[in-house]
Structures are given as C-alpha cells and as structure tokens.
UniProtKB/TrEMBL annotation:
It comes from Chinchilla lanigera. Residues 64-280, 378-541, 803-1029, 1042-1287 form the FANCI solenoid domain. Residues 1-53 form the FANCI solenoid 1 cap domain. One of its GO terms (cellular component) is cytosol. GO terms for biological process: DNA repair; positive regulation of protein ubiquitination. This is FA complementation group I. It holds the Pfam family FANCI_S1. It comes from the Eukaryota. GO terms for molecular function: DNA polymerase binding.
C-alpha cells in the first residue's frame, strides 16, 4: 500500500492519488504512517505523498490532514521514533501548517494546548509545532467558532495563549514552553501574560533549572515587558537570598539548609552572566534596568536593591555605554542610604514610623563575600567602584591646607561613610581574590604618588591594611613599591611618613626593597629641597624603630605598645639581629650628618631619637654619645660662667637673613627624655660592673643638666641681652635674633622645669629651682607679649607649643591639686604658693588637648601612642574635675581678682575639651574613661556591671549642681563663660545617655525645668541651653509641641504686627525674654521647624515612591494604603502643629533682618510640603474612598489660620521696609541692589508657593468630590490696582528727594572730572 501511494505521488496529476486515498479508511492511513515511521523507512516521502493527495481545498483532504497531524504529534511525542525521523516529520508538519483552514487550525491548536494542560507531554518535541500553528492562526482574518463565540484568528490565538498561561505547566517542560513563545508573534498584553506565568514558575523549579529559563525569558522579553522580566528575576533572587540568610542565622542545624550557599551563588552568577549578555545584544534591556533602579531611588532605594541586584549592576559596568550611569546610580544610592540613616538616628519621630532596613553598605560587602564563588564578572566592577567611592568622597583639602576627619561614628558625615565603604570593599576584595591583588596595590600606589596636593590619608590607611594582610604574597609586586620610592623626595612629608609606615612589613621580608629604599633616602638627605631632607630623616628614623637589635628590651618592657608600623608577620630569621645592628649603626652614621643641616631637619631628628631609643635600647650608647657631643658645642664648661649656653652660636646670620641654626631647646628636651627613660628602664636591668665605662657619659649628661639649671637660675635676662630694653621687632635683624634667643631660653626653662621635677623626689630645694625657672620663663613671656602688643604686627602664634610631655603635665597637676601625702606637703607648698605657675600648668594641659583635637596626636614622648595619651587624659581629667568641683569659680574669684581666667574656669574649659576629644578619638573606651573619673575605693565585679549611661548620669549630676548654683547667684555675679562651658559639657555627656533610660528622661526634664524657670539675658547661654533642650527632645519624640509653646512666648514678648492688639503673655519658658526672643530664640526655633519640615518631606517622598514604583492591582494598592495610614496620620499631625507654630510667628512683630527672611523662607517651605502632601493624595485618591477627615481639617486650618495671616505679614514687611528705607541714608548702588534682591526674593517665592498649593487643592477637590476650597480666601497681595491718592504722595516725595539730590550733585561735580561711562542701570 505504501508503495502504491508513493508511485501514484510521482504522477503529474494528483487525481488518482486522491481517489486512492479516499478509498482508504483514515485508520489505515494513520496505521500505515505509524508502521513506516517506526521502521524509519521513507517516512518523509510517504508523508509528502499523503499531503499531496489531501489538498486543504477539499473537506476530505483537510480532515485527513488533521488526522495525520494528530497522529504525527502523538508519534513524535511518544519517543518511539528515531531522532532524524522525528525531525523530518516535524519539518514537514511545519511546512504544511499554513495551508489549513481556520477552524481546523483552531481545533489543532486546542488539541496541542490540551496535551500541555493534561500533562500529556512525554518529551516536549511536539512543542516545536505549536508556534507555527499559532502563527498560521493569527494570519486568518475570517471569524471562526471558538467555544460559543465567533472570533478572528488573532483573537483565537490570544484566547489560546491565555488558556495556556492559566494551565498548570509540567516542571520539566517550563524552559521549552518559554522558548516556544519566542517564535509566536505576541502583542504587549500577551507578552506580559506569558512573562507573569514564567516568573510564577520560578519558585516551583530546581535551582539549577533557573539560569536556562532566565535566558529564554530574556529572549522573550525582547518582544516587550522587559521591565517585568527584570524586576521579577531580581525579586525572586532577593527573596531567595533573604530566606537563605534567615535559614543560616536561625537555630536550625546547617545540614537542614535547603540550598547550599555555594550552589545558590553559582546559579546567581550564571543568571547575572545571562542578563549581561542579553543587555549587550539588546541595549533597551539595559536602559530598562537603569530605569527600574532610578524609579526605586525616588522612594525607598533599599526596597529594590539587594546583594543580587548590586552584583548585577556591577557586572553591567563592563558594558562601556552603561558604566558611568551605573556607577553614578550606585554612588547616589549609597550616599542617600547614609543620609537616611543619619536622619533616622537623630529623630525618634522617624524611628517610630520607619522600620529598620538593611543598609546598602552591608549589601555591597555581602556581594564582595559572595564574589568568591567565581563571580569574576563582578570583581572588576567592585574594584573600580571601591576606588570611585574613595576618590569621590575622600577628605577634601580645606583653605589652610589641612584636612581633618573625625573618628566618631555619630559625627561622621555620609561622605565619610561612603569613603570608608570604598576602602572596606577594596580590602575585602583584596583578601578574597589573589588575581586582583597586584592591580589594587598598583592603583593605591599611583594615587599616593600622583596626588601630592590633596589629602590621601584614606589611601595610606588602605595601603597599610592591604600590606599587613599579605606581606609575603605582595613580594611579587616589589617592583611597583620600589618605583614609588623614587618619588619620595617629591612628596609631602606626611605622605612620605605614611607610605613608609605602611610598607614596613614588606621591608622586613624583602631585602632588595629595603636596600633600594636606603639608596633613595641617602640621595634625598642631600637634596636641595628641605622637605626631601626631612623625608629622609623620617624614613631613617622609621627604619631604626622597626629593625630590632639583639638584646633590645621587648615591647612589654617598653613604655609604648607596638604601633601601627609593627608587623604581624615577624620574619627576623631571614637575616639575624647582628646584621640588624650593623644596618642600624650605618643608618645612625647617616643621621649624624643631619646635625649639620637646617634647624627643621635637626628638630625632626631630636623628636625621633626618643622613640628609636625606646624601641631599640641597644642603640642607646650611640644615640646618647651623639647627643652629648652635640650639646658640648653649645655648653659653657666653666661652672661660674653665665649664661651656661652659647645662644649666639645657635643663631645663623646669612646677609640680612637671620635664622635659627641649632634648636637647643629641642636638643635638651631630647636629652632629658632619653636620660629619664634610660635611668628608669635600662639601668635597673644592668647587673655587675660591665657597663660602668658606658655609664660615664650618662653621669656627665646629668651633671651638665644640673649645672645648666643652677646657672640659668642665677642668670638675669640682661645676661642673655633679653631685658625690657632689648629690641624685639620682627623688622630688624637684632629684633629677629632676640626673638629667636628668647624662644630658646623659654624652651630651655620648660625642659629644665620638667627635668628638675622628675628627679626632685619631692625635694623642697628642687621645687624652688622649678619655681625660679618658671619665673624666668614668665618674665620673658611677659616681655614678648608686651612688645608684640605694641608692635604693628602681632605675633603669628598666640601661644607657643609647650615642651612639657603629657605625662609630666599629668603628674604635675596631680601633685599640685591632689597630693595629700604629709611628707610632700612642705615641698609642694612652694609650687602651690604661685597661682601663676598653677594656672600655667592647667593652660598647658588645655594646649595638649587642643593639639590632640586638631592633629590626632600630641608633641613629646608617647605623643603618637593612643593608649598612653588616653591614660594621661584620664589622669588629667580626674584632677581637673576634682579641682573644679572642690573649688567653684565663684569662691575662687571672690577671693582675689587677677588678670585672665581663674584656675577653676580653666579646669572647666579643659574638661569640655577632653570630653569632646574622647568622643572624637576614643568612642570604644568611653566606659573605661568614665570609670577612671570615679574616685572610689571599691572596684570589682559590681563595678564592671555599671553601664555607660549610669556613669555618665553620675557626672551629669555634678555639672547640673554647678549650673544651678551659678543660676541662683546674683545677676552681676553670673559668669557667662562658665555657664556656656557647663552647657557644652552637659551636651557632650548627654550624648552618652541611652534615650530609653530613666537617666535620659531625668536629663530632659531637668533641662526643660531650667528653661522654664530661669530668665537670663545672656543670648549665647540662652541659645545653647535651648539647643540642648531641642536635641534631647528630638531623641524622645518630635519637638513640634515645644516649638508651638516657644512661638507663643516669642509672640507675647515682641507683640503683634497690629499695634492695636495686645497679646497675652504665655510665659511657658522664662528663658524667652524681650532681649533673647529675637533674633536668638526666634532663629533657633525656625531652624528646628526647618528640621521637622525636612523629616515630613522625607516621609512624603518615601510614601510617593512606594505608590509610584509600579502600577499595582487594586488589591495591592489598597494594602499599601492601609500600611501607610499611620505614617499619613503622623505627617498630618506634624504639619498641623507646625501650622499653629507659624500661625503665632506670622503675627509677631519680628525685627527686620535675618528673622523675617528666615520666617518667609520657612513659610515657603511649609507650603511646598503641604503641596507635596496634596499631590500624594492626588496619586492615591480613589473616588470611592476619598481623602481622610484629618486631611480635610489640615486644609481647613491652613485656610483659616495661615494663608490670610501670611498675606497680612507680607504687607507688614513691605510697609516696614519702605518706612525703614526713608529714614536711612542711601548706600553704594551695588550694595543696595544686592540687598534689594535678597530681601525681595522670599516674598514672591512665598506667594507662588501659596498659589501652587491652592492650584493642587482645586485638582484634589475635583478628584475626591470634597470641596476643599471653601475655607480658602482669595489672595489680596496680588491686587495690582493703582491707588491714586497713595501714588500722588509717593510722586511728591520722589520729586522733593530728586531736587535735593540734583543740588548736591551740582556741588560735587564742580570738583570732579566728568564720568567717561554711565553706570549700567
């Protein structure tokens, strides 16, 4: 039979074939086809012959074809056929499909869809045919029966697709089904339907099946719905990550985790690659991705940013056209995230309304950790982004050339957080990926070398962290580091110091690098530039500190713990300590040559020797001998010769220029500290007589210092030629020389004071010597101040840096104020008898703390060691606190009146500075610091359990008592400076209290009580105290009610704009008086109102973002509206209270100037935010639901209590200005123009803001079917009607003024050349 069909098919005509096929039963044809297909013999030829004999133009032929198609689909799907045979059959079916009449195509398509719905697919091969059938169907124009309806081919196709999408898809054919749709012509709605279906299937598939499905989905999305596809994929992985984190952080055992981390990350990596590849082929997809994230940025950026989406964005940066846009997007999101966090931290009002979300910074660091799972496509983006953040948000150069950053987490600005995040990204990436390490190191070094003019501390810190992590691995990059060394002589000193400190670990493992550095430093030592020589000294001193010689004291015996420059990887075995000794002695030899160079270079050397000695005690002899021989050049050996030092030799005259050559004060300071350290650390450890010969010069140095002390005391100022008659003017050579010598003598006196105190052992004679030296210092200091005051040019430095070490200041203050030992009483009374000496000691303590705040370290020994500084700070604070609380300022000042601040006041100032410095540099040690202040005998377990809040509250109570005593004193005895300092101290301590603690509540109520009950005319005190009240209040609840009360007080004190109205004085806060109400309190409350408005604005923006992110279904939209109800209510309540606040101020007769300008600007802001709220309701308003009742009340309140008063106030301000200007004389034209512009701008802005508000209210009224405009009155200030009577008066005045001016002008121009050009009007 098959042969006959084939032979008939070869005829030219098909009649015989048709007749023969008609004689056969349908089952015979399908049975024959089935048999042949299984055999795999000439199936294609047979099928062609049957199709030739079954034309679609005839009904029988079309039905036969339909039967054949059904049979073939079952055959192909059964899996019984060979692959080639199945493909051939499918190919023929595809070719012939378009010949089918419409109704049969519908029938055929329905059958295919039913197979899918019923799970009848066995291998999914037949799915290749469905797109052809659907395509053929969509071309049929005639109406066909589909169910009960008559539909066109296109509509039938649409119904079939909807049916298919609503059916249950077999898990194993999801990818094939998705792939099938890419060959079907789809409308936008159909694509959206298919994409939705595919996204729903994600959760039902195994993880490994997701990447191929995403690939097919992205191909399909080229037809439309790119946004839905991308947002769906991102949302799926975001949820998956969230579940995975919860599983890992939960209590379950790790083996119960549904998906292993590695597998999830690998799948995410593959999906990201698919998306990036799709974006390369379809740029529109990339644009949609950016649009998606930009839309999210408008509201809550963290809602659509997750580790997966960040990794995706970083991968997209490899596509050049999107690189800049993606980085900008991420930068903006990060800074916005940090700003939001900062806003939330400072406002309890916002914290109650906004749930805590994961910070974007944490997400990015999670991406870095995940990138270990072969995310190479993300790594490059991470590195670039890390550097971009550090470049964009690093410390900026400020005017005086200094850059400074605080370390406190609370006070850090968002930009500083962003820079820190950049450094963290790079460090973590460096730790995880070996391949990228060299590139990171190279880029850091490039920035260090090329950015000499800008601050690069953040790069130096990163370099230090990177090298510390893997010094041995980075040996391979030594060429890059060596190359950077070549530029050392051209870099600023601070950069050189930071760079060499950072590369110390590398120098310890690479001898070649160390040798190349020494060569560079030796060259630099003799360079022409002074900075290059200083850099060489700094480099050599660092090397001496870090290469320990055999027999040196261990760090535990040293007075300072290991610093940043010490290495975690200690590899001294590579070359022994004997080699180190030779190396160090070589360097010392090089440094000795510096003693013949400029004073600045020598100062560096003297300041560095102490640290070297402490770390490398075996070098003590060499260093001390060097210092001794240097001192001998300037020492007068004869015991009766005065003065004991050759000051003339320290000053160098080069022509007219006179400069310091030998900083003798620094030399003596270095000797004194080295000698003290040697005596206390090395000598007790020496045994026997083996060191006796060496000890000779230590004794000699002691004798020399003793002799210098005695002769300095005997010397008069005339012996130094520095008495009152001497010339100290900076303009003459003699004056310059005398200034230098005076500075040296004062420095030497300071050094000798410290030396004699340290060796005194509380001897009365020694303390008398100390006082005599101080009197010499004081006389000279007074002369210099007197001469500087008379001269035209003031001294550049108000106070010179003291040579006293911080440890000495701490010991001296403790002895002066706290030493109660009977045996010390007599000797200490010598020092205590001089109040000037005690005041000087406290002043030096203040100077040291100020130095710490400005630079992060102090001068002198251990000045770079944070632990030692902290220890001394605790000790100094304890003494200052005791002195201030024991002897109040009032007691001290009533006793004797002296020039300058009293000691108690200085102590308080010191406490204020120290508390700020501790919060700035030592936030983790706050507990330890507060514990050190409590002078209690009991310490132990109970002591450790006391919280920071409790300790801070204890200290706060002491200062509260002091402030109360001050406020209760007579008005003439009120010390404004002390009051300000006390408020500052209380503000600083209040930051340590936990806002939820009873201690914080007590602090708030106490501050509130002070403000309510005390009336002080001092504006600064009032401002600081009220600021403290507002800052405390904001951490508990929103301070808007407080603002309303204060505004009523201001209104009562200043009176109404309508002079006929008498305002009732409310007197909520006694602190608000006629003197303080404006501008002090008024500007303060307006700035607080501005903050409250900013918070409301932030909330409205957040709400709008949630609504506008995507077009939601009715159900989802109503759900979001319900979630937002508490926030909406809070916003309306805030605005309502602020409205009453402005209602008071806008009726107040405020003085012209800043108060009026600020009020107008804030009113403008108020209306802008009211408009934003109205626009939000326009977005969410459903005609059925309308708007909330409290919103209607708010609108009513604005119409009755604010808008009319605003227009009255504008008229009041304009009248006031016009009358004020008549009284004043005319000033220069430019100044007047600038003032006019500044003063007139806020009024039009405010009127525009009011009218915009009313415009959107009209729109909302129409949409909500509620008449919101019934409470609004028509504006009056925009009435430009010309009033004749007023115009006549003004014109008359103008004419009179004009005639007066012209007369004056004629007189002036008689003595003046005619102007060449007219001033531009």
């Amino acid at each position: 039979m098959d042969q006959k069909i084939l032979s008939l098919a070869t005829d030219k005509t098909v009649d015989k074939l048709q007749k023969f096929l008609q004689t056969l039963k349908e089952d015979d044809v399908t049975g024959l086809l089935q048999k042949e297909a299984v055999k795999g013999k000439a199936t294609g030829a047979l099928l062609r012959a049957i199709f030739r004999g079954s034309p679609c133009s005839e009904e029988d032929g079309a039905l036969r074809r339909h039967k054949i198609y059904t049979c073939c689909i079952q055959l192909v799907e059964s899996g019984d056929l060979q692959k080639e045979v199945a493909s051939e059959i499918l190919g023929l079916l595809m070719l012939e499909a378009h010949h089918f009449p419409g109704p049969l195509l519908v029938q055929l398509a329905n059958e295919c869809v039913d197979v899918i719905r019923e799970g009848g697919l066995l291998n999914g091969k037949s799915l290749e045919l469905l797109p052809i059938i659907l395509t053929a169907l969509s071309t049929k124009k005639e109406d066909m029966a589909y169910g009960k309806d008559k539909l066109s081919g296109e509509e039938c196709k649409k119904q079939l697709i909807y049916t298919l999408c609503s059916a249950r898809w077999d898990q194993q054919y999801v990818v094939q089904l998705t792939s099938m749709f890419k060959d079907v012509p789809l409308t936008a709605e159909e694509v959206e339907c298919v994409v939705e279906k595919v996204l729903k299937m994600f959760s039902k598939l195994n993880l490994q099946e997701i990447p191929p499905l995403v690939h097919q989905l992205l191909i399909l999305s080229a037809k439309g719905s790119r946004k839905s596809a991308l947002s769906g994929v991102i949302a799926f992985f975001s949820e998956l990550d969230k579940q995975h984190r919860e599983e890992l952080s939960g209590d379950e055992l790790l083996d119960l985790v549904t998906v292993p981390s590695g597998e999830l990350r690998h799948v995410e990596g593959t999906v990201i690659l698919h998306i990036v590849f799709a974006i390369k082929l379809d740029c529109e997809l990339g644009r949609e991705l950016l649009k998606l994230f930009k839309a999210g940025q408008q509201g809550d950026s963290s809602s659509n940013l997750c580790p997966f989406s960040i990794a995706l964005l970083l991968s997209v940066t490899r596509i050049q056209r999107f690189e800049e846009q993606v980085f900008d997007l991420l930068k903006t999101s990060i800074v916005k995230s940090f700003k939001d966090l900062q806003l939330l931290q400072g406002s309890k009002f916002l914290q109650n309304l906004v749930p805590h979300r994961t910070c974007i910074a944490a997400m990015i660091l999670e991406v870095v950790k995940s990138s270990v799972h072969s995310w190479d496509h993300v790594t490059q983006g991470l590195v670039e982004f890390g550097f971009l953040l550090m470049d964009s948000y690093g410390p900026k150069k400020i005017l005086d050339g200094k850059s400074f950053e605080t370390n406190s987490g609370l006070s850090k600005m968002p930009s500083q957080h962003a820079c820190k995040l950049g450094a963290d990204i790079l460090l973590e990436t460096f730790k995880i990926h070996e391949m990228i390490r060299q590139e990171i190191l190279e880029q850091i070094l490039n920035r260090v070398v090329t950015r000499a003019s800008t601050p690069i501390n953040h790069f130096l810190d990163l370099l230090s962290s990177v090298i510390l992590h893997a010094p041995l691995v980075l040996q391979g990059c030594s060429s890059k580091v060596t190359e950077a060394f070549e530029y050392l002589s051209l870099l600023p000193l601070q950069t050189v110091y930071g760079l060499l400190k950072a590369v110390q670990p590398l120098l310890k493992v690479s001898m070649s690098m160390r040798d190349s550095l020494i060569l560079v430093l030796r060259k630099a030592m003799f360079a022409r530039q002074l900075d290059a020589r200083k850099s060489a000294v700094a480099g050599f001193l660092l090397l001496l500190k870090n290469f320990k010689v055999l027999g040196s004291l261990s760090s535990s015996q040293c007075s300072q713990s290991i610093g940043v420059s010490q290495v975690h990887v200690d590899v001294h075995s590579r070359y022994n300590s004997v080699a180190n000794e030779t190396f160090c002695l070589e360097i010392l030899d090089s440094l000795r040559r510096c003693l013949g160079q400029q004073a600045d270079v020598r100062v560096m050397l003297y300041e560095g020797f102490y640290d070297v000695l402490r770390r490398n005690s075996q070098l003590a002899n060499s260093i001390m001998q060097t210092l001794l021989s240097q001192l001998k050049q300037f020492y007068e050996p004869k015991p009766d010769l005065l003065p004991p030092l050759k000051l003339e030799a320290c000053v160098l005259a080069q022509g007219d220029q006179i400069c310091l050559q030998e900083p003798l004060d620094y030399l003596l300071c270095c000797i004194q500290h080295c000698l003290a350290w040697y005596k206390s650390r090395v000598m007790p450890l020496q045994q026997g007589d083996e060191e006796e010969e060496d000890e000779g010069f230590y004794q000699e140095l002691d004798d020399m210092l003793e002799s210098i002390t005695n002769r300095m005391i005997k010397s008069e100022l005339e012996d130094f030629e520095l008495d009152k008659s001497a010339d100290f003017s900076q303009s003459t050579g003699t004056g310059t020389k005398n200034n230098i010598c005076a500075s040296l003598v004062m420095g030497i006196c300071e050094v000798l004071i410290e030396y004699n105190f340290s060796i005194s052992n509380f001897s009365k004679n020694k303390f008398e010597d100390v006082l005599s030296l101080f009197m010499c210092y004081k006389k000279l200091s007074d002369i210099l101040h007197e001469k500087a005051g008379k001269g035209k040019a003031k001294m550049t430095n108000k106070t010179r840096d003291s040579f006293w070490s911080m440890k000495f200041v701490s010991d001296l203050l403790t002895a002066l104020f706290r030493d109660n030992i009977q045996s010390h009483e007599e000797s200490l009374s010598v020092l205590r008898s001089s109040s000037e000496f005690m005041r000087h000691a406290v002043n030096v303590a203040l100077q040291k703390v100020q130095q710490l705040k400005e630079t992060g370290h102090v001068r002198g020994p251990d000045g770079q060691n944070p632990d030692k500084i902290f220890e001394n700070l605790c000790s100094i604070t304890r003494v200052l606190l005791w002195r201030y609380t024991s002897i109040p300022t009032s007691v001290e000042e009533s006793g004797k009146k002296e020039k300058g601040k009293s000691i108690s006041l200085l102590c308080l100032e010191g406490l204020q500075k120290i508390l700020t410095a501790v919060q700035q540099f030592y936030p983790p040690k706050t507990q330890e610091f507060l514990r050190a202040l409590e002078v209690t005998g009991k310490e132990g377990e109970d002591d450790a359990e006391v919280s920071v809040t409790q300790r801070a509250a204890f200290q706060i109570r002491q200062f509260q008592r002091s402030l109360l005593n001050l406020l209760s004193s007579e008005e003439e005895d009120f010390n404004s400076k002390e009051a300000l300092l006390l408020v500052s101290v209380l503000s600083t301590l209040a930051k340590l209290l936990e806002p939820s603690s009873p201690q914080f509540v007590q602090m708030l109520s106490w501050t509130s009580k002070i403000c309510k009950e005390n009336s002080q005319e001092d504006a600064s005190f009032c401002k600081n105290l009220m600021s403290l009240l507002f800052s405390l209040h904001a951490l508990v609840k929103s301070p808007v009610t407080l603002l309303r009360d204060v505004s009523q007080d201001i209104h009562g004190q200043l009176g109404d704009i309508d002079q006929d109205i008498e305002v009732e004085k409310t007197n909520h806060f006694a602190m608000v008086t006629l003197k303080t109400a404006a501008p002090t309190v008024c500007l303060l409350v307006l700035s607080q109102a501005e903050k409250a408005l900013e918070e409301v604005d932030w909330l409205i923006t957040k709400l709008k973002g949630q609504v506008s992110q995507e077009t939601l279904s009715e159900e989802a939209s109503s759900q979001i509206t319900l979630q937002n109800l508490p926030t909406e209510k809070a916003i309306i309540m805030q605005l309502g209270t602020l409205l009453t606040f402005f209602h008071e101020l806008v009726q107040t007769a405020l003085p012209s100037g800043s108060c009026v300008d600020t009020l107008l600007k804030d009113l403008c802001k108020m209306y802008t935010i009211l408009t934003a709220l109205v626009r939000y309701y326009l977005q969410v308003c459903r005609s059925s639901g309308g708007i909330p009742k409290n919103m209607e009340k708010l609108v009513k309140l604005s119409g009755s209590h604010l808008t009319p008063l605003c227009y009255s106030y504008i008229s009041y301000v304009q009248n006031k200005k016009s009358t004020g200007e008549k009284k004043k004389e005319k000033t220069a034209v430019a100044t007047a123009m600038a003032r006019v512009l500044r003063e007139t701008k806020p009024i039009p802005n405010l009127i525009f803001a009011i009218e915009q508000y009313e415009k959107f209210l009209i729109s909302l009224s129409k949409k909500s079917k509620v008449n919101l405009m019934q409470h609004m009155k028509l504006s009056t200030s925009r009435d430009f009607k010309i009033k004749g009577n007023i115009l006549d008066v003004v014109l008359q005045e103008t004419e009179e003024e004009g005639s007066e001016e012209s007369t004056a002008l004629e007189h002036r121009e008689q003595n003046k050349e005619p102007a060449r050009k007219k001033r531009k009007q």
